Amino acid sequence: MSCCDVIVVEQKDHTFKSTPFFVQFNTNPHKERKKVKIWVNDKRIESHMWLEPEQLRCFFSEQEVSETNDAVHKEEKEKGSAVESTSKKDVKEAVREVKKKEPQLDRNKRGYLFRAFNYFFPEEELLDRMENDKGHALDQLTPTSKEVEVMNLKPGLNKVKYVLDGDKELQIPEQTINGSIFRWLWHERIALCDIDGTVTKSDTMGLITTAVGYYSYVHPGICSLLSSLDSRGYRVLYLTARSITQGARTREFIESIRQEQDSRMPHGPILTSYNNILHAAVREYVLYRSETFKIDALKGIQALFPKDSKPFVVGLGNKPTDHESYATIGIPVENIFLIDPYGKVKGLKSKDEYQYTGYEEVQHMLTDLLPNVITGSES
């Protein structure tokens, strides 16, 4: 059971725009449509979601979609990203590339795409699974402004709980999923931070150490850098191409990091892939296109803000594709920083490439470069 963090942005007219509520249960033995109750900050709210028989991902009623989020929905539909951006055609192309690069494997093994999760998926099985995981359109996963309003969200972090009732007669237990909703204002300024290879010292080891609960394999100074930005009024948004099913463990990882003087990572939404682990793995390990997920997701968040707004101001990553993603959504190139496994950080300084000794030096530079952000309501 898992869910993605949600970002709600209050507009100038005090209406709300929200990112989709991706909520996915492990099992659904119910034979009829079931209501999914929502609790926010330990209080039951009027809004709710629905779960269809034999489906795992719940949704808001299709008839309840209002004009508040129409602009966001229209943009998503026009760019063709309903719920899945990795197409069957892409996978077939990747299969052909794998077969070209691995001629030493026998014919039976050439049909397998990746080995990242200690088991194999034959080509046809993987394609079938991807084809069957369509999900709901984004407009069915996004609440209306009125539905958000009754949640009575406080500024910043809100704890949310999704509850699917059980059935005593059929011996079906209750299922509960815990998540987070972040309420922001239309004038926020956001610092983006990739996780694997940027917080951790490498993509692969970061994933492994998170999975086994070992949390010290992180770059020195990352807590201090992000905490400094947070204390100066910038919102921190964490990015990872991991799937929604790894969201809870990723959150546990971020919240468990401790560094010098017991400094911690600031609270912030974690943007995970809303697809299942198969889609995330194909995109990350076979197609090598994690930036497609990040760009699409960040553009969706950008659409929650006024059109003339530039909410993203700083980007931390570790790969050229991170630089591409950040530049695409409008972060100035001089505010984009890429770290290598040895802790050296590359960025632009006076329009020339410059190498910083680590996050501590980047923190000092950003303190001089970026002004403090005015927090609170603006009229």
How many domains? The number is 3
State the oligomer.
single chain
The total count of helices amounts to: 12
Termini Cα gap? 40 Å
How many β-strand runs? 15
- Arrangement of strands in the largest sheet: 11-10-9-12-13-14-15
N-to-C series of helices and strands: EEEEEEHHHHHEEEHHEHEHHEHEEEH
Q: CATH top level of the largest domain?
A: Alpha Beta
The secondary-structure class comes to alpha/beta
Tell me what you see in this structure.
- Mean pLDDT is 77; it is low at 62-88, 101-135, 205-215 and 276-288.
- The chain has helices at residues 70-78, 88-101, 107-110, 123-132, 145-149, 203-212, 222-231, 247-256, 277-286, 290-302, 320-328, 359-369, and strands at 2-3, 6-10, 16-18, 23-24, 34-40, 43-51, 156-164, 175-185, 190-194, 235-243, 270-273, 312-317, 336-339, 345-349, 352-356.
- The longest helix is centred in the first third of the chain and has 14 residues, at 88-101.
- The protein has a 7-stranded mixed β-sheet, sandwiched between helices. A 6-stranded mixed β-sheet has the order 3-2-8-7-5-6. Strands 1-4 form a two-stranded antiparallel ribbon.
- The protein has 3 domains: 2-67 and 139-184, Immunoglobulin-like (Sandwich); 88-132, no CATH class; 187-369, Rossmann fold (3-Layer(aba) Sandwich), CATH 3.40.50.
- The two termini are 40 Å apart.
- It is α/β, with parallel strands linked by helices.
- The protein is built from 12 helices and 15 strands.
